[in-house]
């Protein structure tokens, strides 16, 4: 069975006095966080929206080539796990290959495991990791190239960039642009990050 791994990268627009999320401290696993509201006295508050001073944005990439040229469908950086490769290694490698960006050693220590699920459309197991990281604006990918047959069954092959655009989108926009299977993941992430934010408010 084929397996893929990807990284969900997000940033939060803050005022200067806001602390960053400490995911290593607050995150045990996505399942326990998402179901923790059942054990809280105020389950409505635990699903509250983020404070007004913060807006979550996620980094999405647009597939390159003729198939997606006129389609506003976006993805997260991800790709297949190679033989004898760990899921996190694959996710980091694919991110660099698709975007040309690299994580610092400090970044690598902050990446956490977020989810693992079976994508029913192609029966592929997908591992998702998570990190808060701001790579800035006006991003231009330096993607690797892949070879595809185009037109289909023509026995003619062309080289295309794996991705041709990348940008941060707020969660509302992102859920409207991504592939259907990815929308569910973003909704799960939204619940998770709001729970982390709520827990920090309680501690403070």
Report on this model:
By secondary structure, this protein is α+β, with helices and mostly antiparallel strands. It has a single domain (3-203), classed as Nucleoside Triphosphate Pyrophosphohydrolase (Alpha-Beta Complex), CATH 3.90.79. The chain has 7 helices and 8 strands; from the N terminus they run βαααββααβββββαα. Strand 4 and strand 5 (124-132) form a beta hairpin. The longest helix has 24 residues, at 180-203. The model is unreliable at 28-53 (pLDDT under 50).
Order of helices and strands: EHHHEEHHEEEEEHH
Beta strands, count: 8
Major sheet characteristics = 6 strands, mixed
Strand content: 25-35%
Which stretches of 5+ consecutive residues score pLDDT under 50? 28-53
Compute the number of structural domains. Answer: 1
The number of helical elements comes to: 7
- Rg measurement, Å: 18 Å
Name of the CATH class: Alpha Beta
Indicate the CATH topology.
Nucleoside Triphosphate Pyrophosphohydrolase
CATH superfamily: Nucleoside Triphosphate Pyrophosphohydrolase
What class do helices, strands and sheet pairing give? alpha+beta
Distance between the termini: 46 Å
- The chain-level mean pLDDT equals 82
User: What overall geometry do the principal axes of the alpha carbons give?
Assistant: globular
CATH architecture: Alpha-Beta Complex
The share of residues in helices is 25-40%
């Amino acid at each position: 069975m084929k397996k893929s791994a990807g990284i969900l990268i997000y940033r939060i627009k803050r005022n200067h006095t806001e602390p960053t999320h400490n995911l290593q401290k607050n995150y045990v696993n996505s399942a326990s966080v998402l179901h923790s509201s059942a054990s809280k006295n105020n389950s409505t508050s635990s699903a509250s929206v983020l404070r007004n001073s913060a807006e979550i944005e996620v980094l999405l990439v647009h597939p390159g080539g003729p198939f997606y040229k006129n389609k506003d469908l976006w993805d997260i950086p991800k790709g297949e796990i190679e033989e004898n490769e760990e899921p996190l290694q694959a996710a980091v490698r694919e991110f660099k290959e698709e975007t040309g960006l690299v994580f610092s050693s400090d970044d690598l220590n902050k990446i956490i495991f977020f989810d693992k699920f079976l994508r029913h459309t192609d029966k592929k197991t997908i591992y998702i990791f998570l990190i808060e990281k701001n790579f800035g604006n006006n991003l231009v990918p330096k993607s690797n190239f892949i070879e595809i047959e185009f037109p289909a069954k023509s026995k003619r092959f062309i080289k295309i960039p794996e991705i041709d655009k990348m940008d941060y989108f707020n969660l509302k926009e992102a859920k409207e642009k991504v592939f259907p299977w990815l929308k569910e993941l973003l909704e799960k992430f939204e619940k998770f990050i709001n729970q982390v934010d709520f827990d920090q408010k309680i501690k403070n």
